[in-house]
Amino acid sequence: MGLPETVDFASNFAVLVRIQGPDPKGLKMRKHAFHQYNSGDTTLSASGLLLPDTLYAAELAKSQGLGLVVTVASVVEPFLSSKHREGISQGPPELIPGAHVDVMVEEKLGLRKDAVGGLDKGAPCWLSAQLIRLVDVPVSSLALQSLVEASSGSMDHGWEVGWSLASHESGSQPFMDDVQTQTENGNASTVESHRHARGGSSNPSIMGRSTTRVAILGVFLNLKDLPNFKISSSRKRGDFLLAMGSPFGVLSPVHFFNSLSVGSIANCYPPRSSDISLLMADFRCLPGMEGGPVFGENSDFIGILIRPLRQKSTGAEIQLVIPWEAIATACSDLLLKEPQNAEKGIHINKENLNAVGNAYSPKSDGSFPYKYEHHNSHRPSPLPVEKAMASICLITIDEAVWASGVLLNNQGLILTNAHLLEPWRFGKTTANGTEDGTKSEDLFLTPKEFSRYSEVDGYGKSQRLQPKTPNIVDSSVADERKGYKLSLSYKGHRNIRVRLDHADPWIWCDAEVVYVCKGPLDVALLQLEHVPDQLCPTKVDFKTPPLGSKAYIIGHGLFGPRCGSSPSVCSGVVSKVVKTKAPPYCQSLQGRNSHIPAMLETTAAVHPGGSGGAVINSEGHMIGLVTSNARHGGGTVIPYLNFSIPCAVLAPIFDFAKDMRDISLLQNLDQPNEHLSSVWALMPPLPSKPAPPLPTLPESILQDNEKQVKGSRFAKFIAERDKLFRGSTQPGKAGRISNVIFSSKL
């Protein structure tokens, strides 16, 4: 089934949920990114999923012709009666007097006499709905809680849930939001700007429960024309995803109803478990799409989109999806995990129809239940991108910061970024702070926090290796390498550990620095001290990737060692290839071509912690090393504007990795190169030598042209920048790169 067919199929199940009620003090829109307010009434909206009756376990719903809609609870919770908001009542949820819920469905499903707005076949219509139940999803709640607790450094630099447009922290006082008002037919449509209220709860447990809670609505309509869907049984990183929802839907349903977003699965939580409780999605969604259905390849149903997880310090948003099995398990007396024939009846306990679902009992020690999915012969062969994931490593420095790395050979040689080891050369974060005033706790674990988790990685213990001598080089080369290493400023006093993900469970190894590039490229090499068996080194493609070709970025962005997560996969395309004059060591590789790719730009997301990861093409071959991304002046990271070093310019490193004997290959990269330096300093290309004047041109024209160039303000600016750049790259002096662009803080 192609993309157009999948989109058409998904539109049968995606609905817009609207709730309106009295709000004289204007408090109901708190923590919501948009709303409508008119004459003391507030209107909120979200997306929802209309379920086919083959997923109903309740004969009551079938017998009454009641269709079920699943959406996020956050859209209806502001209008709950006070006894239900405070948790006093355990009965069916009730709304405050005057509040009512409507659901907009596609016109082909809404042709009923009770449709709001008539029976216009050319447009979707509103149907009245009722709130049946609020359902906690314990396994997803605990997964989100575990993820937040493991990756939060401090109260000010942790995580929050919600869109960047919304105020996330709740308090007893009304939110004093700056508003931008647009008047249309007398109604005020409001989009809140981002401003935090003081106070509020940052309790990860409360955050997990409130974020993953869903609401089940009932709507009377004929479901005979609604097709059935299949529940997806396979969820792997990199798999295709399609989300359909209504961003800012209540502001203008005509414009926003059932919009779509396409992407892929970035990660699964818990990692390596057959019972996935939470999916991290790599697509861009907008406020109001929460509650919408998410489908995979062949239109298989995946789950429900919820509000994103957002890092306070960087503003990075992670889209979250609750798998259908988790929702159905939490509400097993009303919903089924797998579709059943419509004729099959399943008895339910009607006394529990309105009870809050709770089908989970944590272990006595509070640990999270998991099952490892062992690889066996019945599992299909992994895709090329899935194979490439096994070569991506997690690197920790002094048990305080982390980054990504790429395994180059079976001898345990690892490629990563130099700014991880020498951040001061690149204007990046140091262990004690940053040159721009940002503390390391923004993104990293403190040594005290990490020490408790250094041997337990998430859900499974890390594996310590028995001492084993790596088969690297002969003694003479080792001495030469050691001598080169001792010339580095840190002289080996750092504690470097590497987590290898090719085995189950993961393997932690100690590592030492082999090489840190002193030239313009931000690269370094590490060597495992004890080399495990059956390593999975990366495969390399030195060709220049075509613009628009598929690109996957694999690395440990945002979630570090304590989270116990596998490397994330973000997909995009190659958006730009910056070329420069080929250095002498690359001319043999380029043949007659005098220019070489010096920088890759992609539309795939790069988050803090992803530096040192790999850019992979659709064949699963590495085409670049992730190095930098951009951020706004206020500190917010721009994940979709990122820079990578092409493999072609790193050819000496891959040649050295073949047998690790010729150290002179690496020394080629240490030579000054003004062309590469200008590219990675984000400066204009160096001017070429002026051509001799053409003899056929009159002297007066040449003189006028020369005066015009000398008088050009832009030319003067470029000349001054060029002078500054040349002065900052003298031998023996470290140049400071503009702080507008910086590497992912690792």
From TrEMBL:
Gene3D superfamilies per record: 2.40.10.120, Trypsin-like serine proteases
Chain intervals for the UniProt region annotation (Disordered): 170-207
An annotated Gene Ontology molecular function: serine-type endopeptidase activity
Pfam family of the protein (one): Trypsin_2
Swiss-Prot/TrEMBL GO biological process terms: protein processing
Compositionally biased intervals (Polar residues): 170-191
Gene Ontology, cellular component aspect: peroxisome
UniProt xrefs under InterPro entries: Peptidase_S1_PA, Peptidase_S1_PA_chymotrypsin, TYSND1/DEG15
Name of this chain's protein: Glyoxysomal processing protease, glyoxysomal
